[in-house]
Amino acid sequence: MKKITLSAILAFTAMFAVAQKGIPGVDYRACSAAEKNNAIIDNDPQIKAIVEQENAWALEYAKNNPNNVKINPLTGKKTILYVIPVVWHVVHNGGPENISKATIDNEIFKLNQDYQLLNPDAGNVHAAFASIQADVQVEFRLARLDPDGNCTEGITRTKSTKTYAMDESAKFLAGAESWNRNGRYYLNIWQGQTIASGAGGYSFYPGVVNMNQDGCVLIAGQLGNTITHEVGHWLNLRHVWGNSNDPGPGNGNCSDDDLVTDTPNCEGQTGCAEGTISCGSVDNSQNYMDYNFCDVMFTNGQKARMHAALNSNTGYRATMVSANNHQLTGIDDPYEWNPVCGLLGADFTYDKEYVCEGDVVNFADINTYNGTPDQWAWDFVGGTPNTSSVATPAITYNTAGVYGVTYAPGNAAGFATAVVKSNIITVSSVTADYVLPFAEGFENTTSFGNDWTIQTENGNGWQSTTTASFTGNRSLRVYNLSNSAGDITEAISPSYNLSTMTNPKLTYKWAFAQKLSGGNDQFLILYSLDCGGTWTPIAFKAGASMATGTASNTGFTPTSTADWDSSSVDLASLASETNVRIMLRFKNNGGNNFYIDDLNISGTTPTGITENTQVNNLKVYPNPMSENTTLSFFLKNNISNLNIVIRDVLGKKVTNVVSNSAFSAGKYTMNIDKTNKLSSGLYFIEFNADNNVQVEKLIVK
């Protein structure tokens, strides 16, 4: 996507909001599991009955199985009683929330440590709870067969902006859907960057939601013990202070209960004060189901309640840990920790969409949903190099045009079907399309179509129209009447050389009306100095300040010059720039149609420089050259006699590039390569346009 500079955004906060945040370090924020569950239970008598039945079953199970511990007679160690297949759904937008397979493997390893009392900090438990510290005897394994029986690493990756506001809808994104189907059942974990409610995670108790939603939701900045906490909810544990999201004094938690006999009533903590007494006894503040920074344990009572859940088929928990489901999900012994699966998908990301000739674009594989690639096959049309076999190639684009990329990842099982993305990299000439003065009345539809780029995210976009104009017959319009709030359209101009005049300015005419009520449409003008890679705002209008006509709920059309207004934008800060693009950005927020006409860029001719200077923006790139280089230039006027000669350091002519030729005004690029008798060394390119001579150095490697 195009980038707009942060400093510029801050200067125009009425138009833009700060986008994604970086992934923080360990960040303990409130879990919203109780809130999510209670909202359903309290409003659905059928679900409430299921939950009450499950609670009664858990109490009965705990009473009949107070010490549910089995010892392996050969090793004398506790055995694993339940093994749970896991699928980890990564929802990301190409940022650090797209955590690696190694990170996920480590999270599963730490989850197993916590549930098997193998966590290195287990010895830090308070003396009051040492005797009831539980090995839950549960193991978690990433699935090795997906719902269709295909080999898998147990990880899916789905690219979506939903990662910035994770909620239940994330579970229905294509590629991130629950794997609970086809008679196979898994613990589904959905992980993104931010949860919409601001929580650090949440889960549903058994039976509260259908199996398409069953599982845990987490954020990448809060992994570690948060996963242990949320899986505890998934196995029917409440917070140690009770069934709410509100720990601390004054919340009535001493009279609430978590339905576990050996966890004392408490108010709940958000810090880590061991030995605190809040409800008449020492708090079990080191419990994984509290909010704290020092959690190290489950109790035997919590273990019994989790085992009760795994022996009930509410939420298919008992089916999930059955031998048949182990076979169907590929987690039965012997378990393959690092399977090599055929890659069923391919995708990639790139850091620039718009570049100038000679710029570099960095590409990167987006891990496929079914495995981890260790081979990469790239093809770059128009790029240098035009092929690559590395994971993160850096590609140079030297020639103006619009180019696509083909990519396929592979591993020992073979290559995935290649993904082809056409017309994704737009490369613009380093030579400006026009010099000043410049006038655009949108009358010539051919030049408008060739010179301008229209980008519309949603709704009706910018278009040339004969419906109304200030002068001539045409203008540029956004038919905004039927657009939805938030629809955005952008019109990007050709490039201009502003260095030929001092005090440049942009002037334009516009016409706009609001609707009878509401509406705060926004019009922004931005500029780019890097061929559209980044944009900086220079002018802004919004709401009532945009209006030139009478508000109406029917389509606004200016009928006379009185319905138009004019504006001027100072471009003096860009006076030395030789390649400037302008963007007209319109965002709908409930208003009417918007028109632009007579967009002109002009300035003052500097003293000593006449307007009939023949050549502008003569450039040679890359320089030094290896195999070839490009000579680009702009002719302001027609040239009757153009000569371009390459000379050596002694002034001797080596080769002619152009000889005694007539050229029309406009932009040109020419290729020079080593076949032009160029060996390594220093040369001079002599450019003679009707006896106006310029010279550029050229170094050949």
Write up this protein.
The structure is a single chain. The relative contact order is 0.09. The strands form eight sheets. The chain has a six-stranded mixed sheet. Strands 2, 3, 4, 5, 6 and 7 form a six-stranded mixed sheet that branches. The protein folds into four domains: 33-68 and 77-329, Collagenase (Catalytic Domain) (3-Layer(aba) Sandwich), CATH 3.40.390.10; 345-428, Sandwich (Immunoglobulin-like), CATH 2.60.40.10; 434-604, Jelly Rolls, CATH 2.60.120.200; 615-700, Sandwich (Immunoglobulin-like), CATH 2.60.40.3080. Residues 5-29 and 608-612 have low confidence and may be disordered. By secondary structure, the chain is mainly β. It contains nine helices and 37 strands.
Could you write a compact summary of the structure shown?
This protein has 701 residues and is mainly beta. It contains nine helices and 37 strands.
Total number of helices: 9
Record the strand order, biggest sheet: 1-27-26-29-23-20
The count of domains is 4
**Number of E strands:** 37
What is the highest CATH level, the class of the largest domain? Alpha Beta
Q: What is this structure's SSE topology?
A:
Elements: E1 3-4, H1 6-11, H2 33-41, H3 45-64, E2 82-92, H4 101-115, E3 138-142, E4 155-159, E5 187-192, E6 201-203, E7 216-219, H5 225-234, H6 300-310, H7 317-320, H8 323-329, E8 348-350, E9 354-356, E10 359-365, E11 375-380, E12 383-384, E13 387-388, E14 394-397, E15 401-411, E16 414-415, E17 419-428, E18 434-435, E19 438-440, H9 445-451, E20 453-456, E21 462-465, E22 475-478, E23 488-492, E24 496-497, E25 502-512, E26 522-528, E27 534-542, E28 565-570, E29 581-587, E30 594-604, E31 615-621, E32 628-635, E33 639-648, E34 653-663, E35 666-673, E36 681-689, E37 692-700
Parallel strand pairs: 1-27, 2-3, 2-4, 2-5, 5-7, 9-17, 18-24
Antiparallel strand pairs: 6-7, 8-10, 10-14, 11-13, 11-15, 12-14, 15-16, 15-17, 19-30, 20-23, 21-22, 22-30, 23-29, 25-28, 25-30, 26-27, 26-29, 31-32, 32-35, 33-34, 33-36, 36-37
